[in-house]
Amino acid sequence: MSVVISGTPIALFCLVRESKAPFKITLGRDNDVSDFKKIIKNEKPNDFAKIDIDNIKLWKLNEPVSSENIEELREITLQDNENVTLLIETNDIVDYWTEDQTPLKKSIHVIVELPGK
């Protein structure tokens, strides 16, 4: 299930809500969100072993949160929250992070929501 990086590379730090450690994913801005999920599953095969990618939700933090403040992300309400945007499978990464937008360093950019959590 390998994914070819398509377009300008972008590095994003992700956090599974139940986890304490963020992880970095590098993908292309022309990849779609479905590719993003496949890359996450490939990078974290043990954590996502029994989870289908269509059951994973990715939420963009519109205002990235410093990696020093990870605790506040565990309690965040994802639905009806102005600081998060649900990433839609068919959209490209560039729809959320434009070519002229550089993700903040030392910050969490995406929350990974697992099914039933």
TrEMBL record:
The answer to whether the entry has keyword Protein biosynthesis is no
Q: What does the UniProt entry say about where the protein is found?
A: Host cell; Secreted
Tell me which UniProt keywords the record has, alphabetically: Secreted
Name the UniProt record assigns to this protein:
Crinkler effector protein N-terminal domain-containing protein
Q: Any idea where the Crinkler effector protein N-terminal domain is?
A: 10-113
Principal place of residence? host cell
Q: Which Pfam families match?
A: Crinkler
The terms describing its cellular component in GO are: extracellular region; host cell
